[in-house]
């Protein structure tokens, strides 16, 4: 196990009706005027928007609002949010929605107290030294941004999707009520579960030795999501299954399962260029790319894929052919993704073979290789993309 530091200060309020505590939590963490940030019409259709507005109003907490966050959040709306936050002198950002809303809120929180272009944080030109406090009310279990120090934003001009990180971006509080996810369409539920699985896999596929504790934690989260997702697909109102998936999503990306070990992230970075170019739902894009990445690296570094097969998918070990064991694990993963309705190929998500070179250029624009479990060169990235066609 490698040396590490770990800091995770977010206060979690989990369970039925937890959103009722939002005003108290805003005050607890110093908020006196709030920017309410959200996405499309889903929180208005569900009644959550009216509920939050009433809670804030009854508590005497002034707020301004900015909706319109889309999946794969864009920097254009962030600029609007920064301008609004400065003009109205807000001192707290409340994100009501999923990972895209939370990522956009984090960007506004950092950008509104920064003298330069907030995209400097995403281009590696500046580090985040301060940020407004952020609180979240989560409506989809997927990205894990409710507990992470990470934010990902797409540049509208270049269609490059990049991340920034700072412990200052970890939410002060996150309200997690599984009931709020019960109205999600099946596709979004499945895509969210896939995202959770891949947040764990990016940490699990590691060359660091003697990491049994985090290996076992990763495997526990993976097996939980694999068990609970089909139950939710059959019964969307299954609160207990929703609860297990929601907490898994937080555990998958607050890095408690990733400390002390080298992490990979090749599948995520390759998918970022897919979703930036085609506006693919992130989890759906991962469902296309990740199994092809697994099949490709199997021929180079099978060790962790064998463990993935035996411990996560309960595949019996073939002592004479460990690669065959690993392949059965990948096939089990592919069958699971198909069962929950995830896409399998570029054609399923509207991507085109002729854009593979462009996506590869973007993946490797600042480096010679991608990933760490197997360091992928340009030809490797191209071949994995081609296997998605």
Question: Which runs of at least 5 residues are low in confidence (pLDDT < 50)?
Answer: none
- Kindly state the mean pLDDT as a whole number? 97
Q: Classify the secondary structure makeup into a structural class.
A: alpha/beta
Question: What is the end-to-end distance?
Answer: 38 Å
SSE topology string:
EHEHHEHEHEEEEHHHHHHHHHH
Order of strands, widest sheet: 1-8-5-4-2-3
Number of strands: 8
What percent strand?
Answer: 5-15%
- Overall helicity: 40-55%
Secondary-structure topology with pairs:
Layout (H helix, E strand, L loop, with lengths): L10 E4 L7 H7 L5 E5 L3 H4 L2 H11 L4 E4 L8 H14 L3 E6 L1 H13 L22 E5 L11 E6 L4 E6 L7 E4 L9 H19 L7 H23 L4 H15 L12 H13 L3 H17 L4 H10 L9 H18 L6 H4 L6 H8 L14 H10 L2
Parallel strand pairs: 1-8, 2-3, 2-4, 4-5, 5-8
Antiparallel strand pairs: 6-7
Helix pairs in contact: 4-5, 6-7, 6-8, 6-10, 7-8, 9-10, 9-14, 10-12, 10-15, 11-12, 14-15
Fold and architecture overview:
- With 389 residues, the protein is of the alpha/beta class.
- It has helices at residues 22-28, 42-45, 48-58, 75-88, 99-111, 186-204, 212-234, 239-253, 266-278, 282-298, 303-312, 322-339, 346-349, 356-363, 378-387; strands at 11-14, 34-38, 63-66, 92-97, 134-138, 150-155, 160-165, 173-176.
- The strands form two sheets. Strands 1-8-5-4-2-3 form a six-stranded parallel sheet, with helices on both faces. A two-stranded antiparallel ribbon has the order 6-7.
- Helix 6 (186-204) runs parallel beside helix 8.
- It is globular and about 70 Å long.
């Amino acid at each position: 196990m490698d040396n590490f530091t770990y800091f995770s200060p977010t206060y979690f309020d989990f369970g039925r009706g937890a959103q009722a505590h939002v005003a108290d939590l805003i005050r607890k963490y110093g908020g006196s005027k709030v920017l309410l940030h959200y996405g499309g019409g889903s929180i208005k259709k569900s009644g959550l928007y009216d509920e939050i507005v009433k809670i804030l109003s009854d508590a005497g907490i002034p707020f301004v609002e900015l909706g319109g966050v889309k999946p794969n959040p864009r920097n254009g709306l962030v600029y609007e949010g920064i301008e609004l936050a400065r003009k109205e002198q807000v001192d707290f950002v409340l994100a009501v929605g999923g990972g895209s809303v939370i990522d956009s809120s984090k960007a506004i929180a950092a950008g509104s107290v920064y003298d330069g272009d907030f995209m400097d944080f995403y281009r590696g030109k500046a580090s985040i030294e301060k940020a407004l406090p952020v609180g979240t009310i989560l409506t989809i279990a997927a990205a894990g941004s409710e507990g992470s120090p990470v934010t990902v934003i797409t540049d509208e001009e270049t269609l490059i999707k990049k991340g920034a990180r700072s412990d200052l971006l970890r939410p002060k509080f996150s309200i997690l009520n599984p009931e709020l996810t019960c109205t999600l369409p099946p596709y979004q539920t499945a895509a969210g579960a896939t995202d959770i699985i891949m947040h764990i896999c990016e940490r699990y596929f590691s060359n660091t030795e003697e990491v049994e504790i985090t290996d076992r934690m990763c495997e526990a989260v993976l097996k939980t999501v694999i068990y609970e997702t089909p139950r939710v697909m059959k019964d969307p109102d299954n609160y207990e299954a929703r609860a297990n998936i929601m907490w898994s999503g937080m555990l998958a990306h607050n890095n408690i399962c990733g400390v002390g070990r080298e992490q990979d992230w090749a599948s995520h970075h390759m998918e970022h260029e897919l979703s930036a170019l085609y506006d693919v739902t992130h989890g759906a894009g991962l469902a296309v790319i990740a199994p092809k990445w697994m099949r490709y690296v199997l021929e180079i570094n099978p060790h962790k894929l064998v463990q993935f097969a035996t411990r996560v998918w309960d595949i019996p070990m073939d002592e004479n052919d460990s690669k065959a064991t690993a392949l059965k694990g990948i096939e089990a993963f592919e069958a699971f993704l198909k069962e929950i309705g995830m896409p399998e190929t570029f054609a399923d998500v509207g991507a085109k073979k002729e854009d593979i070179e462009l996506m590869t250029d973007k993946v490797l624009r600042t480096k010679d290789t991608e990933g760490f479990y197997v360091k992928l060169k340009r030809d490797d990235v191209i071949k994995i993309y081609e296997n998605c066609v």
